[in-house]
Write a structure and sequence with these properties.
The complex is a heterodimer of chains A (319) and B (280). With 319 residues, chain A is of the alpha/beta class. Chain A contains 14 helices and nine strands. The longest helix of chain A has 20 residues. The longest helix of chain B is centred in the middle third of the chain and has 20 residues. Chain B is globular and about 50 Å long. The chains are: A alpha/beta (319), B alpha/beta (280).
Protein backbone atom coordinates (compact mmCIF):
# COMPACT_ATOMS: atom_id res chain seq x y z
CA UNK A 1 0.00 0.00 0.00
CA UNK A 2 1.40 3.44 -0.92
CA UNK A 3 2.34 5.73 1.94
CA UNK A 4 -0.50 8.07 2.79
CA UNK A 5 0.18 11.41 4.39
CA UNK A 6 -1.86 13.22 7.02
CA UNK A 7 -2.28 16.95 6.62
CA UNK A 8 0.52 17.80 9.04
CA UNK A 9 2.81 15.25 7.38
CA UNK A 10 2.58 17.04 4.01
CA UNK A 11 5.87 18.98 4.35
CA UNK A 12 7.61 15.63 4.79
CA UNK A 13 5.81 14.23 1.79
CA UNK A 14 7.21 17.04 -0.34
CA UNK A 15 10.76 16.47 0.82
CA UNK A 16 10.49 12.74 0.30
CA UNK A 17 9.18 13.26 -3.20
CA UNK A 18 12.10 15.49 -4.00
CA UNK A 19 14.56 12.94 -2.63
CA UNK A 20 12.93 10.26 -4.73
CA UNK A 21 13.19 12.37 -7.86
CA UNK A 22 16.84 13.12 -7.27
CA UNK A 23 17.61 9.49 -6.54
CA UNK A 24 15.91 8.47 -9.75
CA UNK A 25 17.82 11.14 -11.67
CA UNK A 26 21.13 9.94 -10.25
CA UNK A 27 20.46 6.29 -10.96
CA UNK A 28 19.50 7.15 -14.52
CA UNK A 29 23.09 8.22 -15.11
CA UNK A 30 22.63 11.91 -14.56
CA UNK A 31 24.87 14.01 -12.42
CA UNK A 32 25.74 12.52 -9.04
CA UNK A 33 23.54 14.30 -6.54
CA UNK A 34 24.37 12.14 -3.57
CA UNK A 35 25.45 15.03 -1.42
CA UNK A 36 22.28 16.93 -2.21
CA UNK A 37 20.19 13.86 -1.43
CA UNK A 38 21.92 13.31 1.90
CA UNK A 39 21.29 16.90 2.81
CA UNK A 40 17.63 16.63 1.95
CA UNK A 41 17.33 13.35 3.82
CA UNK A 42 18.80 14.92 6.90
CA UNK A 43 16.42 17.82 6.60
CA UNK A 44 13.50 15.47 6.16
CA UNK A 45 14.49 13.41 9.21
CA UNK A 46 14.81 16.53 11.31
CA UNK A 47 11.45 17.82 10.19
CA UNK A 48 9.83 14.48 10.93
CA UNK A 49 11.34 14.34 14.39
CA UNK A 50 10.26 17.90 15.00
CA UNK A 51 6.67 17.37 13.88
CA UNK A 52 6.35 14.18 15.89
CA UNK A 53 7.84 15.69 19.02
CA UNK A 54 4.98 18.14 19.43
CA UNK A 55 1.86 16.46 18.22
CA UNK A 56 -1.49 17.76 19.40
CA UNK A 57 -4.02 15.28 20.83
CA UNK A 58 -6.08 15.55 17.67
CA UNK A 59 -3.04 14.81 15.51
CA UNK A 60 -2.43 11.76 17.66
CA UNK A 61 -6.00 10.64 17.07
CA UNK A 62 -5.36 10.89 13.34
CA UNK A 63 -2.11 8.92 13.61
CA UNK A 64 -3.85 6.23 15.68
CA UNK A 65 -6.18 5.79 12.68
CA UNK A 66 -3.48 6.16 10.02
CA UNK A 67 -4.18 4.02 6.97
CA UNK A 68 -0.61 2.71 6.93
CA UNK A 69 -0.47 1.86 10.61
CA UNK A 70 0.33 -1.79 11.41
CA UNK A 71 -2.71 -3.81 12.46
CA UNK A 72 -3.07 -6.83 14.75
CA UNK A 73 -2.20 -9.39 12.08
CA UNK A 74 0.89 -7.37 11.10
CA UNK A 75 2.19 -7.50 14.65
CA UNK A 76 1.35 -11.18 15.04
CA UNK A 77 3.25 -11.96 11.88
CA UNK A 78 6.21 -9.81 12.85
CA UNK A 79 6.67 -10.94 16.43
CA UNK A 80 5.22 -14.43 16.69
CA UNK A 81 5.56 -17.78 14.94
CA UNK A 82 3.28 -20.75 14.30
CA UNK A 83 0.12 -18.65 14.35
CA UNK A 84 -3.01 -20.75 13.89
CA UNK A 85 -6.07 -18.59 13.46
CA UNK A 86 -9.26 -19.84 15.10
CA UNK A 87 -12.71 -18.86 13.99
CA UNK A 88 -16.28 -18.54 15.21
CA UNK A 89 -18.17 -18.14 18.46
CA UNK A 90 -19.76 -21.62 18.20
CA UNK A 91 -23.18 -19.98 18.44
CA UNK A 92 -23.85 -17.65 15.54
CA UNK A 93 -20.99 -16.67 13.23
CA UNK A 94 -17.37 -15.78 12.72
CA UNK A 95 -16.61 -12.09 13.03
CA UNK A 96 -13.65 -10.97 10.89
CA UNK A 97 -13.41 -7.71 12.89
CA UNK A 98 -11.71 -9.73 15.63
CA UNK A 99 -8.93 -12.21 14.94
CA UNK A 100 -7.61 -14.75 17.38
CA UNK A 101 -5.71 -17.95 17.69
CA UNK A 102 -2.74 -19.77 19.10
CA UNK A 103 0.82 -18.70 18.41
CA UNK A 104 4.31 -18.85 19.79
CA UNK A 105 6.21 -15.94 21.25
CA UNK A 106 9.93 -16.76 21.42
CA UNK A 107 8.95 -20.40 21.24
CA UNK A 108 6.45 -20.27 24.10
CA UNK A 109 2.78 -20.91 23.32
CA UNK A 110 0.42 -17.97 23.83
CA UNK A 111 -3.16 -17.15 22.90
CA UNK A 112 -3.58 -13.93 20.96
CA UNK A 113 -6.73 -11.88 20.33
CA UNK A 114 -7.09 -8.53 18.58
CA UNK A 115 -9.32 -6.19 16.64
CA UNK A 116 -8.55 -6.25 12.94
CA UNK A 117 -9.07 -3.46 10.45
CA UNK A 118 -8.83 -3.87 6.69
CA UNK A 119 -6.17 -2.36 4.46
CA UNK A 120 -7.91 -2.32 1.09
CA UNK A 121 -11.46 -1.14 0.51
CA UNK A 122 -12.63 -4.70 0.02
CA UNK A 123 -10.91 -5.92 3.15
CA UNK A 124 -12.21 -2.98 5.14
CA UNK A 125 -15.75 -3.99 4.27
CA UNK A 126 -15.08 -7.62 5.19
CA UNK A 127 -13.57 -6.53 8.49
CA UNK A 128 -16.45 -4.11 9.04
CA UNK A 129 -13.87 -1.33 9.55
CA UNK A 130 -12.69 -3.11 12.67
CA UNK A 131 -16.03 -2.73 14.44
CA UNK A 132 -17.03 -6.03 16.04
CA UNK A 133 -20.47 -7.53 16.42
CA UNK A 134 -21.43 -9.59 19.50
CA UNK A 135 -20.18 -12.80 17.85
CA UNK A 136 -16.73 -11.20 17.67
CA UNK A 137 -16.66 -10.60 21.40
CA UNK A 138 -18.02 -14.09 22.00
CA UNK A 139 -15.32 -15.60 19.81
CA UNK A 140 -12.82 -13.66 21.91
CA UNK A 141 -14.52 -14.96 25.05
CA UNK A 142 -14.21 -18.52 23.80
CA UNK A 143 -10.51 -18.02 23.22
CA UNK A 144 -10.05 -16.44 26.66
CA UNK A 145 -11.51 -19.54 28.28
CA UNK A 146 -9.47 -21.71 25.94
CA UNK A 147 -6.32 -19.94 27.11
CA UNK A 148 -7.26 -20.47 30.73
CA UNK A 149 -8.15 -24.11 30.20
CA UNK A 150 -4.76 -24.87 28.70
CA UNK A 151 -2.89 -22.46 30.93
CA UNK A 152 -1.45 -20.23 28.22
CA UNK A 153 -0.82 -16.51 28.65
CA UNK A 154 -3.16 -14.18 26.80
CA UNK A 155 -2.01 -11.26 24.67
CA UNK A 156 -4.60 -8.85 23.28
CA UNK A 157 -4.31 -6.02 20.78
CA UNK A 158 -6.82 -3.19 20.85
CA UNK A 159 -7.56 -1.25 17.66
CA UNK A 160 -11.17 -0.30 17.01
CA UNK A 161 -13.25 2.82 16.67
CA UNK A 162 -15.81 0.91 18.70
CA UNK A 163 -18.32 -1.92 18.74
CA UNK A 164 -20.65 -1.81 15.74
CA UNK A 165 -23.94 0.05 16.19
CA UNK A 166 -26.36 -2.03 14.11
CA UNK A 167 -29.74 -3.71 14.31
CA UNK A 168 -28.30 -7.23 14.35
CA UNK A 169 -25.75 -6.24 16.98
CA UNK A 170 -28.56 -5.08 19.27
CA UNK A 171 -30.66 -8.17 18.57
CA UNK A 172 -27.79 -10.41 19.55
CA UNK A 173 -26.85 -8.46 22.67
CA UNK A 174 -23.91 -6.19 21.94
CA UNK A 175 -24.03 -4.82 25.49
CA UNK A 176 -24.11 -8.24 27.10
CA UNK A 177 -21.27 -9.54 24.94
CA UNK A 178 -18.98 -6.70 26.04
CA UNK A 179 -20.07 -6.92 29.68
CA UNK A 180 -19.44 -10.67 29.74
CA UNK A 181 -15.87 -10.21 28.55
CA UNK A 182 -15.19 -7.65 31.29
CA UNK A 183 -16.59 -10.11 33.81
CA UNK A 184 -14.67 -13.12 32.58
CA UNK A 185 -11.37 -11.35 31.88
CA UNK A 186 -11.31 -9.97 35.41
CA UNK A 187 -11.30 -13.55 36.72
CA UNK A 188 -9.04 -15.40 34.26
CA UNK A 189 -6.36 -17.36 36.07
CA UNK A 190 -3.69 -16.71 33.46
CA UNK A 191 -1.39 -13.77 32.80
CA UNK A 192 -2.91 -11.17 30.44
CA UNK A 193 -1.06 -8.43 28.60
CA UNK A 194 -2.92 -5.84 26.53
CA UNK A 195 -1.63 -3.25 24.09
CA UNK A 196 -3.63 -0.47 22.50
CA UNK A 197 -1.91 -0.39 19.11
CA UNK A 198 -4.14 2.20 17.41
CA UNK A 199 -7.61 3.35 18.33
CA UNK A 200 -9.04 2.44 21.71
CA UNK A 201 -12.69 3.22 21.01
CA UNK A 202 -14.75 2.99 24.17
CA UNK A 203 -16.48 -0.18 25.41
CA UNK A 204 -15.76 -2.02 22.19
CA UNK A 205 -12.07 -1.58 22.98
CA UNK A 206 -12.30 -2.23 26.71
CA UNK A 207 -13.93 -5.61 26.02
CA UNK A 208 -10.42 -6.93 25.22
CA UNK A 209 -8.63 -4.80 27.77
CA UNK A 210 -8.89 -6.17 31.31
CA UNK A 211 -5.31 -7.21 31.83
CA UNK A 212 -2.44 -7.48 34.30
CA UNK A 213 -0.43 -5.09 32.17
CA UNK A 214 -2.09 -2.52 29.95
CA UNK A 215 0.17 -0.71 27.53
CA UNK A 216 -0.32 1.80 24.75
CA UNK A 217 1.82 2.56 21.76
CA UNK A 218 3.23 6.07 21.83
CA UNK A 219 0.74 7.44 19.30
CA UNK A 220 -2.27 5.30 20.20
CA UNK A 221 -5.40 6.79 21.77
CA UNK A 222 -7.98 5.41 24.20
CA UNK A 223 -11.22 7.19 24.96
CA UNK A 224 -14.70 6.89 26.41
CA UNK A 225 -16.14 8.54 23.29
CA UNK A 226 -14.70 9.58 19.94
CA UNK A 227 -13.68 13.25 19.80
CA UNK A 228 -16.17 13.68 16.93
CA UNK A 229 -18.98 12.21 19.00
CA UNK A 230 -18.07 14.35 21.97
CA UNK A 231 -17.95 17.52 19.85
CA UNK A 232 -21.32 16.66 18.33
CA UNK A 233 -22.85 16.54 21.81
CA UNK A 234 -21.04 19.55 23.26
CA UNK A 235 -21.24 21.97 20.35
CA UNK A 236 -23.54 20.18 17.96
CA UNK A 237 -20.56 20.26 15.66
CA UNK A 238 -18.47 17.18 14.94
CA UNK A 239 -15.93 19.38 13.18
CA UNK A 240 -14.71 20.68 16.53
CA UNK A 241 -13.20 17.28 17.26
CA UNK A 242 -9.74 18.68 17.89
CA UNK A 243 -11.01 20.71 20.85
CA UNK A 244 -12.83 17.67 22.17
CA UNK A 245 -9.68 15.55 21.86
CA UNK A 246 -7.90 17.99 24.19
CA UNK A 247 -10.72 17.99 26.73
CA UNK A 248 -11.11 14.22 26.82
CA UNK A 249 -7.39 13.47 27.41
CA UNK A 250 -7.06 10.56 25.02
CA UNK A 251 -3.33 10.18 24.41
CA UNK A 252 -1.09 7.43 25.76
CA UNK A 253 0.84 10.06 27.69
CA UNK A 254 -2.35 11.39 29.32
CA UNK A 255 -3.50 7.92 30.32
CA UNK A 256 -0.11 7.05 31.74
CA UNK A 257 -0.21 10.18 33.83
CA UNK A 258 -3.69 9.28 35.08
CA UNK A 259 -2.35 5.80 35.96
CA UNK A 260 -4.89 4.09 33.70
CA UNK A 261 -2.12 2.33 31.78
CA UNK A 262 1.17 0.84 32.91
CA UNK A 263 3.50 1.75 30.09
CA UNK A 264 3.84 3.81 26.92
CA UNK A 265 5.66 1.83 24.25
CA UNK A 266 7.96 3.89 22.10
CA UNK A 267 7.32 4.03 18.35
CA UNK A 268 9.94 4.74 15.67
CA UNK A 269 10.33 8.43 14.83
CA UNK A 270 7.45 9.38 12.57
CA UNK A 271 5.17 6.67 13.97
CA UNK A 272 4.77 2.90 13.64
CA UNK A 273 3.54 3.27 10.07
CA UNK A 274 6.87 4.64 8.88
CA UNK A 275 8.84 1.68 10.16
CA UNK A 276 6.55 -1.25 11.03
CA UNK A 277 9.47 -3.63 11.50
CA UNK A 278 11.13 -1.44 14.12
CA UNK A 279 7.73 -0.80 15.73
CA UNK A 280 7.21 -4.55 16.07
CA UNK A 281 10.65 -5.02 17.63
CA UNK A 282 9.99 -2.33 20.21
CA UNK A 283 6.55 -3.71 20.98
CA UNK A 284 7.78 -7.26 21.22
CA UNK A 285 10.41 -6.24 23.73
CA UNK A 286 7.76 -4.52 25.86
CA UNK A 287 5.32 -7.43 25.69
CA UNK A 288 7.96 -10.03 26.51
CA UNK A 289 9.28 -8.00 29.41
CA UNK A 290 5.83 -7.35 30.89
CA UNK A 291 4.72 -10.91 30.39
CA UNK A 292 7.89 -12.05 32.12
CA UNK A 293 7.00 -9.96 35.14
CA UNK A 294 3.55 -11.45 35.60
CA UNK A 295 4.21 -14.93 34.31
CA UNK A 296 5.65 -16.34 37.47
CA UNK A 297 2.85 -15.10 39.72
CA UNK A 298 0.39 -17.47 41.33
CA UNK A 299 -2.97 -17.45 39.49
CA UNK A 300 -4.91 -16.32 42.57
CA UNK A 301 -2.43 -13.54 43.16
CA UNK A 302 -2.76 -12.43 39.53
CA UNK A 303 -6.54 -12.23 39.78
CA UNK A 304 -6.36 -10.38 43.07
CA UNK A 305 -3.90 -7.80 41.76
CA UNK A 306 -5.86 -7.40 38.55
CA UNK A 307 -8.99 -6.64 40.56
CA UNK A 308 -7.19 -4.10 42.69
CA UNK A 309 -5.68 -2.49 39.61
CA UNK A 310 -9.08 -1.63 38.14
CA UNK A 311 -10.76 -1.24 41.52
CA UNK A 312 -8.79 1.87 42.35
CA UNK A 313 -9.61 3.76 39.13
CA UNK A 314 -11.85 6.76 39.72
CA UNK A 315 -11.55 10.26 41.13
CA UNK A 316 -14.09 11.81 43.49
CA UNK A 317 -14.52 13.78 46.67
CA UNK A 318 -15.61 12.35 49.96
CA UNK A 319 -17.68 15.00 51.69
CA UNK B 1 -17.49 6.02 20.05
CA UNK B 2 -20.85 6.12 18.53
CA UNK B 3 -22.95 4.77 21.32
CA UNK B 4 -22.04 7.51 23.68
CA UNK B 5 -23.07 10.21 21.29
CA UNK B 6 -26.12 11.06 23.27
CA UNK B 7 -26.42 11.18 26.99
CA UNK B 8 -30.08 10.68 26.50
CA UNK B 9 -31.15 8.40 23.70
CA UNK B 10 -33.06 10.47 21.24
CA UNK B 11 -35.47 7.89 20.02
CA UNK B 12 -36.99 7.67 23.39
CA UNK B 13 -38.78 10.55 21.75
CA UNK B 14 -40.51 8.19 19.36
CA UNK B 15 -42.93 7.12 21.98
CA UNK B 16 -41.82 8.78 25.14
CA UNK B 17 -40.23 12.21 24.81
CA UNK B 18 -37.17 12.14 26.98
CA UNK B 19 -37.69 15.71 28.07
CA UNK B 20 -40.82 14.82 29.98
CA UNK B 21 -39.14 12.80 32.64
CA UNK B 22 -40.84 14.63 35.44
CA UNK B 23 -44.54 14.66 35.66
CA UNK B 24 -45.30 18.38 35.70
CA UNK B 25 -47.13 20.09 38.49
CA UNK B 26 -50.79 20.64 37.92
CA UNK B 27 -54.02 18.78 38.13
CA UNK B 28 -53.95 17.23 34.70
CA UNK B 29 -51.10 15.79 32.71
CA UNK B 30 -50.65 14.41 29.26
CA UNK B 31 -49.30 10.88 28.91
CA UNK B 32 -45.99 10.84 27.03
CA UNK B 33 -47.06 7.71 25.22
CA UNK B 34 -50.80 7.75 24.42
CA UNK B 35 -51.16 11.55 24.70
CA UNK B 36 -54.33 11.15 26.76
CA UNK B 37 -55.05 13.85 29.29
CA UNK B 38 -55.15 12.19 32.66
CA UNK B 39 -55.83 13.23 36.21
CA UNK B 40 -52.51 13.56 37.98
CA UNK B 41 -53.58 12.04 41.25
CA UNK B 42 -54.74 9.00 39.39
CA UNK B 43 -51.27 8.57 37.86
CA UNK B 44 -49.60 9.05 41.24
CA UNK B 45 -51.90 6.50 42.81
CA UNK B 46 -51.10 4.13 39.98
CA UNK B 47 -47.33 4.20 40.76
CA UNK B 48 -46.69 6.75 37.99
CA UNK B 49 -48.06 4.44 35.36
CA UNK B 50 -50.61 5.72 32.84
CA UNK B 51 -54.00 4.18 33.68
CA UNK B 52 -55.04 4.38 30.02
CA UNK B 53 -52.10 2.79 28.20
CA UNK B 54 -49.96 1.34 30.96
CA UNK B 55 -47.02 3.60 30.05
CA UNK B 56 -44.45 3.63 32.84
CA UNK B 57 -43.34 7.20 33.42
CA UNK B 58 -39.68 7.74 34.17
CA UNK B 59 -39.27 8.25 37.89
CA UNK B 60 -36.52 9.50 40.12
CA UNK B 61 -34.50 7.27 42.40
CA UNK B 62 -36.33 8.47 45.50
CA UNK B 63 -39.69 7.90 43.82
CA UNK B 64 -38.53 4.40 42.91
CA UNK B 65 -37.56 3.27 46.40
CA UNK B 66 -41.06 2.87 47.86
CA UNK B 67 -42.02 0.67 44.91
CA UNK B 68 -38.90 -1.41 45.31
CA UNK B 69 -38.08 -2.12 48.94
CA UNK B 70 -40.05 -2.87 52.10
CA UNK B 71 -41.50 0.21 53.73
CA UNK B 72 -39.10 1.94 56.07
CA UNK B 73 -36.31 -0.54 55.44
CA UNK B 74 -34.00 1.63 53.34
CA UNK B 75 -30.86 2.94 54.94
CA UNK B 76 -28.77 5.12 52.68
CA UNK B 77 -24.98 4.71 52.71
CA UNK B 78 -22.10 6.46 50.99
CA UNK B 79 -24.12 9.60 50.47
CA UNK B 80 -20.97 11.64 50.91
CA UNK B 81 -19.33 10.64 47.63
CA UNK B 82 -19.30 13.60 45.33
CA UNK B 83 -18.11 14.02 41.71
CA UNK B 84 -15.01 16.00 40.87
CA UNK B 85 -14.23 17.92 37.69
CA UNK B 86 -10.68 16.58 37.49
CA UNK B 87 -10.35 17.10 33.73
CA UNK B 88 -11.56 20.68 34.00
CA UNK B 89 -14.07 19.70 31.37
CA UNK B 90 -16.06 22.42 29.67
CA UNK B 91 -19.33 23.20 31.49
CA UNK B 92 -19.10 20.11 33.73
CA UNK B 93 -19.14 22.11 36.95
CA UNK B 94 -22.27 23.97 35.84
CA UNK B 95 -23.98 20.75 34.81
CA UNK B 96 -23.23 19.18 38.16
CA UNK B 97 -24.55 22.23 39.93
CA UNK B 98 -27.81 22.34 38.04
CA UNK B 99 -28.30 18.58 38.38
CA UNK B 100 -27.74 18.83 42.12
CA UNK B 101 -30.30 21.57 42.34
CA UNK B 102 -32.77 19.65 40.24
CA UNK B 103 -32.48 16.34 42.05
CA UNK B 104 -31.09 17.08 45.49
CA UNK B 105 -28.55 14.33 44.82
CA UNK B 106 -24.76 14.54 44.65
CA UNK B 107 -24.64 12.20 41.68
CA UNK B 108 -26.84 9.95 39.55
CA UNK B 109 -27.27 7.12 42.04
CA UNK B 110 -28.38 6.29 45.55
CA UNK B 111 -27.03 3.32 47.42
CA UNK B 112 -28.14 1.60 50.56
CA UNK B 113 -29.17 -1.38 52.58
CA UNK B 114 -32.78 -2.46 52.57
CA UNK B 115 -35.15 -5.38 52.77
CA UNK B 116 -37.29 -6.80 50.01
CA UNK B 117 -39.94 -9.24 51.17
CA UNK B 118 -38.07 -9.36 54.45
CA UNK B 119 -34.79 -10.39 52.81
CA UNK B 120 -31.78 -8.12 53.29
CA UNK B 121 -30.28 -6.69 50.12
CA UNK B 122 -27.60 -4.25 49.08
CA UNK B 123 -29.28 -1.97 46.59
CA UNK B 124 -28.45 0.84 44.17
CA UNK B 125 -30.92 2.93 42.18
CA UNK B 126 -29.83 5.20 39.35
CA UNK B 127 -31.46 8.54 38.67
CA UNK B 128 -31.87 9.62 35.05
CA UNK B 129 -32.61 13.20 36.09
CA UNK B 130 -29.00 13.65 37.13
CA UNK B 131 -27.05 14.20 33.90
CA UNK B 132 -28.93 11.45 32.11
CA UNK B 133 -27.99 8.90 34.74
CA UNK B 134 -24.48 8.87 33.31
CA UNK B 135 -21.83 6.73 34.99
CA UNK B 136 -18.69 8.50 36.13
CA UNK B 137 -16.34 7.79 39.03
CA UNK B 138 -18.92 8.29 41.79
CA UNK B 139 -21.58 6.10 40.19
CA UNK B 140 -19.01 3.38 39.46
CA UNK B 141 -17.56 3.58 42.96
CA UNK B 142 -20.96 3.40 44.66
CA UNK B 143 -21.99 0.39 42.62
CA UNK B 144 -18.70 -1.33 43.37
CA UNK B 145 -18.96 -0.61 47.08
CA UNK B 146 -22.55 -1.84 47.10
CA UNK B 147 -21.44 -5.11 45.52
CA UNK B 148 -18.57 -5.44 47.96
CA UNK B 149 -20.95 -4.76 50.82
CA UNK B 150 -23.20 -7.53 49.56
CA UNK B 151 -20.22 -9.89 49.60
CA UNK B 152 -19.18 -8.80 53.07
CA UNK B 153 -22.68 -9.16 54.51
CA UNK B 154 -23.59 -12.20 52.43
CA UNK B 155 -26.68 -10.62 50.91
CA UNK B 156 -28.05 -10.31 47.41
CA UNK B 157 -27.25 -7.29 45.27
CA UNK B 158 -30.06 -5.45 43.48
CA UNK B 159 -29.53 -2.64 40.97
CA UNK B 160 -32.03 -0.47 39.15
CA UNK B 161 -30.46 0.96 36.01
CA UNK B 162 -31.51 4.12 34.22
CA UNK B 163 -28.73 5.69 32.24
CA UNK B 164 -27.56 7.07 28.92
CA UNK B 165 -24.17 5.42 29.45
CA UNK B 166 -20.71 6.46 30.58
CA UNK B 167 -20.12 10.08 31.55
CA UNK B 168 -18.08 11.81 28.87
CA UNK B 169 -17.02 14.63 31.21
CA UNK B 170 -14.83 12.26 33.22
CA UNK B 171 -13.12 10.87 30.14
CA UNK B 172 -11.32 7.54 30.30
CA UNK B 173 -12.05 7.08 34.01
CA UNK B 174 -15.74 6.76 33.18
CA UNK B 175 -14.90 3.96 30.77
CA UNK B 176 -12.93 2.26 33.51
CA UNK B 177 -16.01 2.21 35.75
CA UNK B 178 -17.36 -0.40 33.37
CA UNK B 179 -14.36 -2.60 34.14
CA UNK B 180 -14.55 -1.90 37.85
CA UNK B 181 -18.25 -2.63 38.30
CA UNK B 182 -18.14 -5.75 36.10
CA UNK B 183 -15.16 -7.12 38.00
CA UNK B 184 -17.01 -6.52 41.27
CA UNK B 185 -20.05 -8.40 39.96
CA UNK B 186 -17.73 -11.26 38.98
CA UNK B 187 -16.51 -11.44 42.59
CA UNK B 188 -20.09 -11.49 43.81
CA UNK B 189 -20.75 -14.45 41.53
CA UNK B 190 -17.67 -16.20 42.82
CA UNK B 191 -18.96 -15.73 46.36
CA UNK B 192 -22.14 -17.53 45.28
CA UNK B 193 -24.34 -14.51 45.86
CA UNK B 194 -27.15 -13.43 43.53
CA UNK B 195 -27.36 -10.25 41.50
CA UNK B 196 -30.78 -9.06 40.34
CA UNK B 197 -30.59 -6.36 37.70
CA UNK B 198 -33.65 -4.23 36.98
CA UNK B 199 -33.54 -2.28 33.72
CA UNK B 200 -35.74 0.77 33.33
CA UNK B 201 -36.36 3.38 30.69
CA UNK B 202 -33.77 4.14 29.38
CA UNK B 203 -30.67 1.98 29.86
CA UNK B 204 -27.87 2.42 27.33
CA UNK B 205 -24.19 2.46 26.47
CA UNK B 206 -21.59 1.75 29.09
CA UNK B 207 -24.18 0.76 31.67
CA UNK B 208 -25.75 -1.85 29.38
CA UNK B 209 -22.25 -2.97 28.40
CA UNK B 210 -21.20 -3.55 31.99
CA UNK B 211 -22.90 -4.47 35.27
CA UNK B 212 -26.51 -3.99 34.13
CA UNK B 213 -26.45 -6.93 31.70
CA UNK B 214 -24.61 -9.19 34.14
CA UNK B 215 -27.51 -9.97 36.45
CA UNK B 216 -28.22 -13.59 37.36
CA UNK B 217 -31.75 -12.45 36.81
CA UNK B 218 -32.52 -9.53 34.53
CA UNK B 219 -35.88 -7.82 34.87
CA UNK B 220 -37.17 -4.92 32.77
CA UNK B 221 -40.09 -2.54 33.08
CA UNK B 222 -42.64 -2.68 30.26
CA UNK B 223 -41.71 -0.76 27.11
CA UNK B 224 -38.37 0.47 28.50
CA UNK B 225 -35.82 1.43 25.89
CA UNK B 226 -32.74 -0.70 26.47
CA UNK B 227 -29.72 -1.07 24.24
CA UNK B 228 -26.06 -0.59 23.62
CA UNK B 229 -25.97 2.00 20.84
CA UNK B 230 -28.53 4.79 20.87
CA UNK B 231 -31.21 4.52 18.18
CA UNK B 232 -30.13 7.72 16.45
CA UNK B 233 -26.56 6.53 16.17
CA UNK B 234 -27.73 3.26 14.66
CA UNK B 235 -29.99 5.08 12.22
CA UNK B 236 -27.13 7.31 11.13
CA UNK B 237 -24.83 4.33 10.73
CA UNK B 238 -27.09 2.01 8.75
CA UNK B 239 -29.02 4.81 7.01
CA UNK B 240 -32.30 3.01 7.53
CA UNK B 241 -35.32 3.57 9.70
CA UNK B 242 -35.47 1.32 12.71
CA UNK B 243 -38.27 -1.22 13.01
CA UNK B 244 -41.13 -0.46 15.40
CA UNK B 245 -40.56 -1.64 18.94
CA UNK B 246 -36.79 -1.79 18.39
CA UNK B 247 -34.83 -1.83 21.68
CA UNK B 248 -37.98 -1.95 23.78
CA UNK B 249 -38.06 -4.37 26.73
CA UNK B 250 -40.40 -6.62 24.73
CA UNK B 251 -37.82 -6.75 21.90
CA UNK B 252 -35.11 -7.77 24.36
CA UNK B 253 -37.30 -10.48 25.86
CA UNK B 254 -38.05 -11.83 22.40
CA UNK B 255 -34.33 -11.95 21.58
CA UNK B 256 -33.43 -13.73 24.78
CA UNK B 257 -31.61 -10.86 26.46
CA UNK B 258 -33.70 -10.57 29.63
CA UNK B 259 -35.62 -12.95 31.87
CA UNK B 260 -38.88 -11.12 32.30
CA UNK B 261 -40.86 -7.94 31.98
CA UNK B 262 -42.48 -6.92 35.23
CA UNK B 263 -44.95 -4.06 35.67
CA UNK B 264 -44.02 -1.57 38.35
CA UNK B 265 -46.83 -2.63 40.66
CA UNK B 266 -45.57 -6.23 40.70
CA UNK B 267 -41.86 -5.47 40.98
CA UNK B 268 -41.38 -5.79 44.71
CA UNK B 269 -43.44 -8.97 44.96
CA UNK B 270 -41.52 -10.51 42.06
CA UNK B 271 -38.16 -9.62 43.55
CA UNK B 272 -39.29 -11.01 46.91
CA UNK B 273 -40.18 -14.30 45.26
CA UNK B 274 -36.85 -14.46 43.46
CA UNK B 275 -34.90 -13.60 46.62
CA UNK B 276 -36.74 -16.31 48.48
CA UNK B 277 -35.32 -18.87 46.06
CA UNK B 278 -31.80 -17.91 47.08
CA UNK B 279 -32.53 -17.55 50.77
CA UNK B 280 -34.15 -20.93 51.22
Amino acid sequence: MPQEYLEFEKPIAELEKKIEELTLFTSNGGIDLEEEILKLQKKSDQLLAEIYSKLSPWQKVQISRHANRPYTLDYIEAMMTDFVEMHGDRAFADDPAIVCGMAKLDGAPVVVIGHQKGRTTKERVIRNFGQPNPEGYRKALRLMRFAEKFNRPLITFIDTQGAYPGIGAEERGQGESIARNLYVMSMLKIPIVTVVIGEGGSGGALALGIADRVMMLEHATYSVISPEGCAAILWNNGAKASEAAELLKVTAQDLFQMKVIDEVVEEPIGGAHRDPRRASELLKEAITRNLGEVRSMEPDELVKLRYEKFRKLGTFDQL
Amino acid sequence: MAWFKKERPESAAQEAPAKKVKIPEGLWIKCDNCKEIIYRKEVDKNLKVCPKCDYHFRISASERLPYLVDEGSFLEVEDGLSPKDFLNFKDYKDKLKSSRKKTGLKDAIISGEAKIGGKPVSVVVMDFNFMGGSMGSVVGEKITRAVERAIEKRTAFVSVASSGGARMQEGILSLMQMAKTSAAVARLGQAGLPFISVLTDPTFGGVTASFAMLGDIIVAEPKSLIGFAGPRVIEQTIKQQLPGGFQRAEFLLEHGMIDMIVPRKDLRATLAKVLDFFAA
